[in-house]
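Need residues for this backbone.
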């Protein structure tokens, strides 16, 4: 590969990689996929596989329904290869004749991306119904070593899948043998197909088929001129062929070369068309090898590159689309931010006894040595002595619900209010005229989405282990307090040790004067006061 061509090929491969990465990064913008965009399909099906030093031409016979494309294809290769039928839309899959040993030097799957390649064994193969995009191929001894020739499905078939298959062939082709007739030169689908071909700078050879000669000699230039004006196409070569089914079926259909120069739209009378002095039919098979392969390849590759960089339909347009869409999402996000969708003012506080209990549990885990044994012993003793008192008290007092159960109900009530508020604000935002938000919010706000959300939230909220989560939070915050306020932590630890020293004396003394278990209660009060102090300091550290 030449240095210049190698650089182009490397750049094109880099461009493709960057585009795919950009598509992945911008997937949340809900843009149409790269695959299916004309310029990207040309990049993948034309530029990537064909920017090589190994020059070859892809020639495709294209046109509308029931105009004799398969007849022209058979004459191009000088053999009865493609099935001929008077019925419309019979060719459902493209077929390709490949020079001998070509597939050993090139990967046909790369040449014809988007197709599943199948060996071609019978003329009726491309007539079969199949949802897959198949391309039937076989070797041909009579073709030049760098020439591939295809017959294609109708570009205006009732089956739209045929259009897609024909378009994929057009994107990778260099030369389009365009078959036109009096009935098929100005149809909308035909014009759309060849407008794209003209924009891609394909080389076009026109065969005006099924002519009534000599009567149509004065009319075909008018029909062809209309076709050129409507599509922007400019045929390199023009041939006309008579309406002769017998000659068509026996590979004896004559093709007469004609000169043609399309007129401008405002001067239809200046059509330059004529009959050569020697009006002799030519063999279509001999026409293609006489063409300048190198010049044609450069022209079509240049056309593909031009299409790729067009401001209105190529890579620049795609980048502007991403920028514009991103701005739409930014505006939508700003609009949502302005309305404070999730404003919460009355979230309940965790009950203070729960906090003190969790901190006490953490503090007990920090005690070491004799201090831990003393406090552990008297805590157990206190619980045992106080058990009858607690039991008698429970018989006379009204049963209290666990604090965390009350908290769970309070929190769920706030969740309900918050969700209702969010939906009310979303309804308001959906009516502010932002198209991006309106379309999405209408879907979100319609139906039973609110009930479904509340059902999901309630199920998860009911199963949530508040105690375990809160203990984990306390452990994390108190550990942070321990590391960030070591002096205060040491001071409290000394107080805790002092309490452990005085605890036996206090308990025994109070027991003998008649207060028994109250000694443990008094010590617990001191401990709770200390723990409340720790909670406050830890909150200051964490905050």
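Answer:
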């Amino acid at each position: 590969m030449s240095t210049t061509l190698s650089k182009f090929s490397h750049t094109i491969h880099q461009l493709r990689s960057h585009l795919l990465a950009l598509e992945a990064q911008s997937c949340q913008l809900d843009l149409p996929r790269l695959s299916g965009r004309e310029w990207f399909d040309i990049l993948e099906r034309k530029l990537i596989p064909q920017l090589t030093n190994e020059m070859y031409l892809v020639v495709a016979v294209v046109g509308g329904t029931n105009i004799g494309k398969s007849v022209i294809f058979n004459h191009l290769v000088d053999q009865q290869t493609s099935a001929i039928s008077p019925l419309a839309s019979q060719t459902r899959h493209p077929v390709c004749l490949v020079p001998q040993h070509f597939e050993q030097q090139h990967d046909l799957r790369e040449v014809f991306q988007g197709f599943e390649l199948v060996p071609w064994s019978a003329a009726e193969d491309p007539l079969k119904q199949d949802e897959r995009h198949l391309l039937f191929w076989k070797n041909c001894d009579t073709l030049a070593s760098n020439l591939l020739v295809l017959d294609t499905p109708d570009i205006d078939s009732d089956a739209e899948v045929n259009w897609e298959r024909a378009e994929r062939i057009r994107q990778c082709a260099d030369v389009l043998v365009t078959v036109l007739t009096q009935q098929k030169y100005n149809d909308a689908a035909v014009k759309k197909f060849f407008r794209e071909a003209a924009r891609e700078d394909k080389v076009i050879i026109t065969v005006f088929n099924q002519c009534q000669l000599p009567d149509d000699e004065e009319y075909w230039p008018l029909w062809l001129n209309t076709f050129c004006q409507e599509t922007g196409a400019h045929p390199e070569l023009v041939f006309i062929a008579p309406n002769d089914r017998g000659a068509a079926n026996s590979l004896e259909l004559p093709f007469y070369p004609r000169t043609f120069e399309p007129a401008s739209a405002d001067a239809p009378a200046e059509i330059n068309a004529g009959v050569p002095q020697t009006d002799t039919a030519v063999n279509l098979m001999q026409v293609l090898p006489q063409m300048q392969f190198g010049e044609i390849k450069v022209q079509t590759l240049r056309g593909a590159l031009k299409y790729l960089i067009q401001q209105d339909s190529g890579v620049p347009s795609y980048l502007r689309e991403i920028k514009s869409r991103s701005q739409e999402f930014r505006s939508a996000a700003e609009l949502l931010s302005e309305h404070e969708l999730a404003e919460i003012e009355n979230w309940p506080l965790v009950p203070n006894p729960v906090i003190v209990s969790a901190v006490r549990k953490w503090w007990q885990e920090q005690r070491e040595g004799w201090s831990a044994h003393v406090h552990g012993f008297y805590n157990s003793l206190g619980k045992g002595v106080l058990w009858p008192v607690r039991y008698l008290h429970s018989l006379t007092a009204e049963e209290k619900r666990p604090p965390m159960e009350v908290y769970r109900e309070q929190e769920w009530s706030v969740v309900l209010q918050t969700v209702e508020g969010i939906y009310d604000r979303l309804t308001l935002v959906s009516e502010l005229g932002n198209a991006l938000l309106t379309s999405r919010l209408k879907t979100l706000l319609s139906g039973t989405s609110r009930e479904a959300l509340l059902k999901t939230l309630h199920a998860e909220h009911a199963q949530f282990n508040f105690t375990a989560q809160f203990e984990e939070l306390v452990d994390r915050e108190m550990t942070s307090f321990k590391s960030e306020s070591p002096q205060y932590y040491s001071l409290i630890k000394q107080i805790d040790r002092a309490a452990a020293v005085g605890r036996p004396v206090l308990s025994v003394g109070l027991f003998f004067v008649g207060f028994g278990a109250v000694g443990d209660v008094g010590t617990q009060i001191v401990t709770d006061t200390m723990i409340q102090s720790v909670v406050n300091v830890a909150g200051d550290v964490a905050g």
